[in-house]
């Protein structure tokens, strides 16, 4: 919900009488830019409101992106000279030198696809049970040469090396999962969940098989 | 002076029967390769995995039905390596034939290149062959007389019942394959139209004509016979009975080898380069064979629908499944809508339409229509490369080309030797050669001789159930035979074209196999 604060400021911004629209800006990476203290992340608003004669519009930025995948919609960024503001706190707008140009420059790319993927929680509890199965399959041995490899790597590597789902070379893990599912072999759902997260799609160490680049 | 008898003419002009091509369903196998699947970076292990996964359940079901009631209670083991010593058990896997005479790429690389390569062998089998059974975990060697009786080739999915010997081999007592799949089309109800009005119903059968091996462009072409064939199919040649039969031919299928690979010998060139592993000899390119073929096709297509498949000698790519010819190759013939370029192999669904009486005297009653209900048939057509490749694996006095083709139906796979000795596209997600349903008619082109057989399911009575008709279509340039398959009754007839003094055709062709009657007309 948008709660736009109409703060009258009497500083420099020229009298832009043109009505401005309030829209949400999505940031994909959580760099804290101009934050002063007390910035609270707030939910973004799907509503577009038109405000008349407004300099400062507070926009709500969602800095964290987990577990809210469903409600986000794509938003476009409009480089209007009207004050596009970031930051939740009103005192962030103090700097009058933060002219629109500067603000535009460090605006993050706001285009976000529909259905945002959840982030991968490496040490979370979601995959504990499955990790137990994986360890059992490996005979409860500690993996050798596994510096820098977390549980997710182990789960996915055991999925690769399970021969009942077929050869793993030459295709991504998700493609192999889909193929196994279409043949009715019941591949584990947790693996699919991992592969559809943000990191699971973008990073090669999760999305491609262990032998990727080596064979 | 005796007057000549007037030439008998039919009371009303003959009309060609028609049939339509029914669009394919989702279970119809498709052999076309999309542009996005055209990548060659996948390994062939994927094909073997998908083949085993697709056929394993069918083999398991049949094996259970066959072996579960035995007294010794054989055990089913899931992995090939888990077989229990000294107990009867059965396991499912893929057959691999380890044959020293098979073309081996390592030998070819290691060969001394100054010596010309030996010509390709006709048969691979020898006494040192061994048969292995493989699955994802490993492989075991199969021994026993039962194995050689089964006449296996590489790539067949079987279940083997037996016991482990002290040396670690698996001695086989019995084997079980997947058996015939369910038939693709529904059973025709009320197909006993033979008892009513024999003379009318016998004239209204619909035939599909199949030809293979026209070999246009070869040094000794069968041009006269091809011309006769075209005239016969368009109804211009022959007497009233011939025209009667020709009017019942609804479509023509050309099953491969329409163009010839042989070089047109220029003066002085005597030796033909030996082939390596199926690579085509370099042919001097001459556009005339293609123009001649297009001209013949244009004559044919204006009379009846034509399907053309690429074959081993055709310019379409050496790996199976061969993709359809580009329509632009055929010039004017390509402008016809009823001209179909098919892949090799191809699955066609053809429906004979309800016949309407073309004889004006006959009163059209509802009973005459019900004699000929529309019937849909599935045809699986190949240009013969899979069967010819399997021919090299097996000694042919016990086996024959017909028995090999019948075995492929029982194994539910069109080309089991596909990645091993038969060149194949690297599929990743599926194996398109697996037969999930059985066709009604299985046509194999490019064969040396004509042959036919009816194959029914093995369980229960032999012929009472539904049968599939296998037809081996011989090469036209050598034998001059045109094969006609009746779509309703699955009977087969041959028409033999020969010209006196020319080599191809016109001889005493005896058709082998059951239920085939050959009608030779010179």
Automatic annotation (TrEMBL), chain A:
GO terms for biological process: DNA synthesis involved in DNA repair; DNA-templated DNA replication. Residues 55-79 have a biased composition (Acidic residues). InterPro entries: DNA_pol_delta_4. Residues 1-118 are annotated as: Disordered. GO terms for molecular function: DNA-directed DNA polymerase activity. One of its GO terms (cellular component) is delta DNA polymerase complex. Residues 26-43 have a biased composition (Low complexity). It holds the Pfam family DNA_pol_delta_4. PANTHER family: DNA POLYMERASE DELTA SUBUNIT 4. This is DNA polymerase delta, subunit 4-domain-containing protein. It comes from Suillus discolor.
Automatic annotation (TrEMBL), chain B:
Its EC number is 2.7.7.7. Keywords: DNA replication, DNA-directed DNA polymerase, Nucleotidyltransferase, Nucleus, Transferase. GO terms for biological process: DNA repair; lagging strand elongation. One of its GO terms (molecular function) is DNA-directed DNA polymerase activity. It catalyses: DNA(n) + a 2'-deoxyribonucleoside 5'-triphosphate = DNA(n+1) + diphosphate. The keyword Ribonucleoprotein does not apply. Residues 43-175 form the DNA polymerase delta subunit OB-fold domain. Residues 208-350, 379-451 form the DNA polymerase alpha/delta/epsilon subunit B domain. One of its GO terms (cellular component) is delta DNA polymerase complex. It comes from the Eukaryota. It is an enzyme of class 2 (transferase). It is found in: Nucleus. Its main location: nucleus. Pfam families: DNA_pol_D_N, DNA_pol_E_B. The keyword Nucleus applies. Gene3D superfamilies: 2.40.50.430, 3.60.21.50. PANTHER family: DNA POLYMERASE DELTA SUBUNIT 2. Belongs to the DNA polymerase delta/II small subunit family. This is DNA-directed DNA polymerase. It comes from Suillus discolor.
